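Morning!

This is the sequence you dropped in the shared folder:
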Amino acid sequence: MKVSGNNINPIPLNPRLLIMPGFSERQILEHYEVLYLGYVNKINEIRDLLLTADRAKANSTYSEFRGLKKAETYAIDGVILHELYFENLGGSGEIRQGELLRLIERDFGSFNTWREDFITTGISARGWAILVYDLRDGRLHNYLLDAHDYGVVQNAIALLVMDVYEHAYFIDYGTRKADYIKAFIQNVDWNIVNDRLKRISFILYNL
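The structure's back. Tokens below.
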């Protein structure tokens, strides 16, 4: 996500996503061009409207300002989660030895146990399944979000994000959600996930 003035600019689509096994070009383009770009356009519209919203009439029952602030949270989470999702796709699905694998094995017992839990989280979720590093306990967790702004755990940093809304897979898989999740796992770019963990380690080390 790039910010230009008060507006957010979309990230470019990685061309590798258009040739991923298990995903059609149409599925990826519909997801990126309609859903993701739609959230980018909407957050820019909301933030423009907030500049002139009447703050004097704000209240917690109903007001223009309240409605825009609620919509802002939903839209910006829609932008951020989709960017993380697209960024951690397009890889080989193979995880290498290193700090990330060590933490997964420490906190889940094995990579296979983590994968089973992550897949089950995705099947159970209505919106997102996310592997996070929780700053509170220093451990990895798989968290479930039923919507962009519902179920978000504070002070947790996303490492791997999987969209499980129907729009993420229905063109290719119809109602076969589990098959989509299998294809997602096979196309994870673990280098991106490792880089996210390294940035966390750098921040914590330099506090």
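Headline: Residues 25-50 form the longest helix (26 residues).

More detail when I'm at my desk.
O.
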